[in-house]
């Protein structure tokens, strides 16, 4: 039986595995190789690793784990888990079941990417969801925001820190009330409610947004806010509570309602940055090891 099974091998899962390996814990880390940021060319705001390609970052993390002989890494998806008499029974893709004393969910979330023609070819190069991650690279450029209602309004106002040339594209009725609309106007942000037909660009760089009516809109990049969802149903099946953003409500050191179950990274909390996910993974590992020590003491 493992001390800990970690579902998800992104920054949170890798960080937790590293700490637990150094604590001499028997760990199984499972990952399917499809991180949230796999479409991007670089991750940012991670001290000493700013601008590193995501795949290279994950490869470095895995390489560091090879020093610790109690840590096992498998390229496999965790498809289910249950807690039976205080022991977690985790099901892997293919049907194999493994048992562990603790379970850490670090599977993250997936963005609800708009289904606009031409967007996928630009995603990660000039179409983004996070200004903290990619705003610097397109600073002072003409930007578009894709979204409606409070989400679209909020992201538009947030982006004023990176550019003064902003247009909110709502792809239909904006669903924005009069007062927020006035605030957008006061900050120089216009709204385009025409239906979007496609995005056009070259070599991954957005050039224009084409609408069903009216003139195309010349833009250098687009940020979208269309929600997100859990990449795994594990937290749901184990009865975790969720907040209004759709992430897991966690307590101190990423603990949950169920003893021995932890959730770290983008699947929990609000600030979804790589460096924060890594920190949460380390915190969860600390709590897990502390619990195991207490359980083993005579």
Entry summary:
With 298 residues, the protein is of the alpha/beta class. The protein has seven helices and 17 strands. Strands 1, 2, 3, 4, 5, 6 and 17 form a seven-stranded mixed sheet that branches.
Structure notes:
With 298 residues, this protein is of the alpha/beta class. The protein folds into 2 domains: 2-111 and 227-296, FAD/NAD(P)-binding domain (3-Layer(bba) Sandwich), CATH 3.50.50.60; 127-224, FAD/NAD(P)-binding domain. The protein has 7 helices and 17 strands. It has helices spanning 11-22, 54-65, 131-134, 149-158, 178-186, 234-237, 274-296; strands spanning 2-7, 27-31, 71-75, 78-84, 87-92, 97-105, 109-111, 127-128, 143-146, 166-169, 189-192, 196-202, 205-211, 217-218, 221-224, 228-230, 261-263. Strands 1, 2, 3, 4, 5, 6 and 17 form a 7-stranded mixed β-sheet that branches. α1 links the parallel β1 (2-7) and β2. α1 packs parallel to α2 (54-65) and α1 (11-22) packs parallel to α7. It is elongated. The two termini are 20 Å apart. The model has no long low-confidence stretch (mean pLDDT 94).
